[in-house]
Write a structure and sequence with these properties.
InterPro entries: HAD-like_sf. By secondary structure, the protein is mostly helical.
């Protein structure tokens, strides 16, 4: 093994953005669909990417 990649947002994916993978899963799991989940969470994207809030 030459390298190990750590994806610090917690999503290992081949998608360009981990949020797409997460939102696709949430859309399928809830039955709401990707577009609806993506639109609902879009306003929080900057904070999520920059860890601007804590749980």
């Amino acid at each position: 093994m030459d390298a190990v990649f750590f994806d610090f947002d917690g999503v290992l994916t081949t998608d360009k953005y981990g949020s797409d993978t997460t939102n696709r899963y949430l859309g399928e799991a809830t039955g709401l669909g990707f577009d609806r989940i993506d639109q609902a969470l879009e306003r929080y994207n900057d904070d999520l990417l920059l860890a601007g809030w804590a749980l």
